[in-house]
Amino acid sequence: MAVPKRKTSHARKSSRRSTVWKLNAPTLVICPNCGEYKVAHRACGNCGMYNGRQVIVKANEN
């Protein structure tokens, strides 16, 4: 049975695991209707448009 001869140090263990926890920032695109940044393939949070259609009705802020 394979048994390690030496204890794995904290630095070696942490450096091996360091790439597991990295997160990627979401890719943002510009909304063709209002020009705000939005996540790709999602409705725009500012104007409510998606794929040229109004999918979220936004109330007027007065």
From TrEMBL:
Keywords: Ribonucleoprotein, Ribosomal protein. This is Large ribosomal subunit protein bL32. One of its GO terms (cellular component) is ribosome. SUPFAM superfamilies: Zn-binding ribosomal proteins. It comes from the Bacteria. Belongs to the bacterial ribosomal protein bL32 family. Transmembrane segments: none annotated. Signal peptide: none annotated. InterPro entries: Ribosomal_bL32, Ribosomal_bL32_bact, Ribosomal_zn-bd. HAMAP family: Ribosomal_bL32. It comes from Ruminococcus intestinalis.
